[in-house]
Write a structure and sequence with these properties.
Helices cover 36% and strands 18% of the residues. The protein is an alpha/beta fold.
Length: 447
């Protein structure tokens, strides 16, 4: 019996064996439906070419025989006028070695890690993400907002950890909580009623100091029927013209409206941990300029990040996102910090070099002389380097920005209370590298 993970390797073999038929097709979609069964979707015009429909059917039957039960016994080949109609809004990626063949996955959720929005050109957006929970991500975000405000920055914070909200309580005392939150807007927007809550979903933190911290919580002061609302935030909207707007597109629209109103210098986004719809939207759909990947040294952390990086590699989108990534060494222990960070860096480098960094290959020995547009003279035996870094390169994405464990932040009953009395020197000693990196990104707005 064939399993799901064998679908693509087997499909590639079958396509290669029927390259003559494939060459006659303008495009071909490998459609994997919700039940993991595979169909071909081919151009409608192919049905008019003599012998081509029969050849496509033969190719599909050869695939179906090997993929069972992940294939259809009947109607395994469908035809559409265009790829856009065939996709129905779903994203896909090219099959290695076949430029005109794309895989389309029909998923039960809106999460789509294969679609990477370009970096925003306006206010810098920084996403705080962790593959596992309990790594101090939200605490680090709160401290970062505090530090940026100390420096006079106008900061906007979004609590998008909707299934485990709480960041707003770290930055806002109870009396400052706004009436509504992000979940309220997403629910009301389904009926084009977002305006009813928009003006009452932002509050200014009492920790603002010289700058300002504007907090957009997951829910309002009176959370109401939060569970019932949460089950609806992922819904798409259908416009009057019949077009469909995904929940992540709605979220992006909300973010743009909030930026237009608040005019922040930087936006800090607290993402849900793991690989669900929220994390997908935060990392791939909101045009983040910097994506902080919080990591503990251990197999669970690196296995999760490897799965994510391999998906980007498989979907040919790694180059669209890799330069925005940065590993954050979370909760670095007091004892043997140097040794711990060296191990963390080594593990991170192994994952990045195997999935996101370009391989270093020897130059073509027949090519001697300057490269196009360059005065550099290449000699036989020189190395051609792509996007790659040494393990010890402090500017590399895999090189961890350390967040040190500190007893004053362990087992806190009130992060809000702790931040109200903390001093800049103590914050720097715990979060220094992280604060410096985010501060550099926040300067992009004025650059």
């Amino acid at each position: 019996m064939t399993t799901f993970d064998q679908i693509l390797p087997i499909t590639t073999e079958v396509l290669r064996a029927h390259s003559d038929t494939l060459a006659r097709l303008e495009w071909l979609i490998i459609n994997r439906d919700l039940n993991t069964r595979v169909r071909f979707i081919a151009p409608e015009r192919a049905r008019e070419e003599e012998g081509l429909p029969e050849a496509v059917e033969v190719m599909y039957q050869a695939l179906a025989k090997r993929l069972a039960p992940h294939a259809y016994a009947e109607r395994g080949v469908l035809y559409e006028a265009s790829q856009e109609q065939a996709r129905q809004g779903a994203c896909g990626y090219a099959v290695n070695g076949f430029d005109q063949v794309r895989v389309i996955d029909r998923l039960a959720t809106e999460a789509n890690w294969a679609r990477i929005a370009p970096e925003t050109k306006g206010t810098p957006r920084v996403v705080f993400f962790s593959i596992k929970g309990g790594v101090g991500r939200s605490t680090a975000l709160a401290a970062t907002a505090w530090s940026l405000a100390q420096a006079g920055k106008r900061v906007m914070v979004l609590d998008l950890d909707l299934e485990s909200p709480g960041l707003s309580s770290a930055l806002l005392p109870s009396e400052r909580q706004p009436m509504y939150g992000i979940t309220d807007w997403l629910v009301e927007d389904l009926l084009d009623n977002g305006v009813a809550v928009f003006d009452s979903m932002v509050a200014t933190s009492n920790l603002s100091h010289d700058g300002e911290i504007h907090v957009v919580p997951a829910h309002g002061a009176a959370h109401g029927e939060y569970i019932a609302k949460l089950g609806r935030v992922w819904m798409p909207t259908i416009r009057a013209d019949g077009t469909r707007e995904t929940w992540s597109s709605r979220l992006a629209r909300l973010l743009q409206a909030l930026e237009a109103r608040i005019q922040p210098d930087v936006v800090l986004i607290d993402s849900r941990s793991g690989m669900d719809e929220i994390a997908s939207a935060c990392i791939t759909d909101l045009g983040a300029n910097l994506i902080l990947l919080f990591a503990l040294e251990g197999a669970q952390t690196w296995k999760g990040y490897r799965m994510l990086f391999e998906q980007w590699q498989r979907a040919h989108v790694a180059e669209d996102i890799r330069e925005r990534l940065r590993i954050v060494g979370a909760i670095v222990p007091e004892l043997d910090r140097v040794t711990y960070l060296e191990g963390l860096r080594e593990s991170a480098y192994g994952i990045f070099s195997e999935t996101l960094y370009d391989e270093i290959a020897p130059a073509d020995p027949t090519t001697i002389g300057p490269t196009a547009g360059s005065d550099t003279k290449w000699r036989v035996g020189d190395l051609v380097e792509g996007w790659n870094f040494d393990e010890a390169d402090e500017g590399a994405p895999h090189y961890p920005w350390a967040v040190n464990w500190h007893r004053s932040f362990a087992g806190l009953r009130s992060l809000q209370g702790r931040l109200s009395v903390i001093d800049a020197q103590e914050v720097q000693s715990i979060f220094g590298p992280l604060l410096g990196g985010v501060s550099d990104v926040s300067e992009l707005r004025s650059a």
